[in-house]
Write a structure and sequence with these properties.
Layout (H helix, E strand, L loop, with lengths): L16 H11 L1 E6 L4 H12 L7 E6 L22 E5 L3 H10 L10 H22 L8 E5 L3 H6 L2 H17 L3 E6 L6 H6 L5 E6 L7 E6 L4 E2 L3 E2 L1
Parallel strand pairs: 1-5, 1-6, 2-3, 2-4, 4-5
Antiparallel strand pairs: 6-7, 7-8, 7-9
Helix pairs in contact: 4-6
Length: about 230
């Protein structure tokens, strides 16, 4: 992400995007990423928001729509899912779940509700963040980077109110360690669910890719009432 190329609409009276982004990073921030784009574009956005491999980062990948073996496709060059400063959380891997069900006898009457599964995911994320915070003896500003690969599955399997409660916990956790997290919601930015979830986040990145052209992004910062120009991703 080349922040120097991004500016808010409105002329000289608008704040500098670089200054606003620096302020969000300093305080800890959570970013909602919207728009229907190719998987390649989604992965590229994830790589950029996770930070360059040359920077000291603790990265958490939360996978709800991707099998864990493809985690490396979302990591910046020079990093690997097996690195000690990378933590992959694989939620609801259908292939893995199928493998488990074939390997072990079923237990009648024992089921895990979607809400309980989401609570378990919350616990996994808390564990990962706490581990890195303790390991680093206190995380530095923007050192923690978290990527949530898709909110679609939680929204399909759980009531939206339940997902919102989950997000309030995770976003507060990220802000508490001055981290930077992003959450993909691959629907048009005009979708009603985007507007309903936006108050939970500090910023929103809207992606677009028309007729196979170069993907573009623009940022919405509700706190400042500002939207940037469209720029190449």
């Amino acid at each position: 992400m080349r922040s120097a190329e991004i500016s808010f609409r409105g002329g000289d009276d608008s704040p500098k995007f670089h200054d606003v982004l620096s302020d969000l990073k300093r305080r800890g921030c959570n970013i909602l990423v919207t728009g229907r784009v190719s998987e390649t574009t989604t992965n590229r956005t994830t790589m950029q928001l996770l930070g360059a491999s040359t920077e000291e980062r603790k990265r958490i990948l939360v996978l709800t729509d991707t099998v864990a073996r493809y985690a490396n496709s979302k990591l910046p060059g020079g990093t690997n899912a097996d690195d000690p400063d990378v933590w992959v959380i694989d939620w609801g891997d259908d292939e893995r779940a199928a493998s488990r069900s074939m390997a072990a006898p079923s237990q009648p009457g024992v089921t895990v509700s979607s809400e309980e599964s989401l609570r378990e995911l919350r616990g996994d994320i808390v564990t990962a963040v706490s581990f890195f915070d303790e390991w680093a003896d206190g995380l530095s500003t923007s050192e923690l980077r978290l990527s949530f690969d898709s909110l679609i599955k939680p929204l399909e399997q759980c009531e939206q109110e339940t997902v919102e409660q989950f997000l309030r916990t995770i976003t507060a956790l990220v802000r508490g360690v001055s981290g930077m997290a992003h959450y993909h919601l691959p629907v048009p930015d005009s979708n009603s669910v985007v507007q309903e979830l936006t108050p939970l986040f500090d910023a929103r990145v809207e992606l677009r890719q028309t007729n196979g052209l170069v993907p573009e992004q623009r940022w919405h910062i509700p706190e400042y009432g500002q939207t940037t120009n469209w720029v190449r991703l």
